[in-house]
UniProtKB/TrEMBL annotation:
Residues 23-183 form the N-acetyltransferase domain. Coiled coil: none annotated. Signal peptide: none annotated. It comes from the Bacteria. This is GNAT family N-acetyltransferase. PANTHER family: GNAT-FAMILY ACETYLTRANSFERASE, SPERMIDINE N(1)-ACETYLTRANSFERASE. GO terms for molecular function: acyltransferase activity, transferring groups other than amino-acyl groups.
Amino acid sequence: MQLLLCHSLVRSNQYAPKQKFIKVIRKGTLSDFDFFYGLYMHPQVNPYLLYEMMDEPTFRPIFEALTQQGVLYVFEVDGKPVGMSKLVPMQHRNSHIVYLGGVAIDPAAGGKGYGAIMLQKVIDYAVTMGFLRIELSVAISNKRAISLYQKLGFVQEGLFKKFSYLKSENIYLDEIFMAWIKDEN
């Protein structure tokens, strides 16, 4: 198992819980399929992510492609996966930018500050990899996520009208475009 960021104590972060647990972020592997599938298809999480609800055989090639690209990350607390994200590097003149997507904490682990801890670890990791800018889009209706992103230094840069289509509800969602920039945080 390759550990990307490991801190045995909670980082001094005003949003972090005060308990001492080992928290790491690592690259997702094929053995993480059940965790990713369960979180992507969780009814409380799925409406905010890219993929519609689907069965395991349909999701597996998507997961395998993302794993092969090396863009999936797992956030673990004491060896147990509780969160996920994707970091998709841009190329050429935009190679200083990484797109952050697929951000979710297992609802069973919610309310413990893990979202803030995971995102700070993702930011720290992106910076160590040489990225100067982290971009994301978030549904305008996802007020909790927007608030968390703002607390961690993300700034709204635009609005995408009818950006995502939620087939299960037959509606288009507007999304806010946000960015975190190294020299501004």
